[in-house]
């Protein structure tokens, strides 16, 4: 096995810590993106329900006109 100098070991340790930190940040960013997408889809679904109800209400309150 090849012997490493103290500098190489310190650099290796620094790289390992940096990689761990980066993967933690990526995981947090991914979780946040998933949460935002979920909240956005729920908001769109709620808006879609409101549009359907308002359309239904306007159709129910329109006066009936005969074609004769």
Automatic annotation (TrEMBL):
Residues 41-52 have a biased composition (Acidic residues). Residues 38-68 are annotated as: Disordered. Residues 53-68 have a biased composition (Basic and acidic residues). It comes from the Bacteria. This is Uncharacterized protein. It comes from Paraburkholderia panacisoli. The lineage of its organism: Bacteria, Pseudomonadati, Pseudomonadota, Betaproteobacteria, Burkholderiales.
């Amino acid at each position: 096995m090849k012997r490493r100098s103290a500098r190489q070991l310190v650099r290796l340790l620094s790289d390992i810590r940096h990689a761990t930190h980066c993967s933690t940040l990526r995981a947090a960013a991914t979780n946040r993106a998933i949460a935002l997408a979920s909240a956005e889809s729920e908001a769109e679904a709620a808006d879609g329900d409101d549009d359907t109800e308002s359309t239904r209400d306007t159709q129910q309150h329109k006066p009936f006109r005969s074609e004769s």
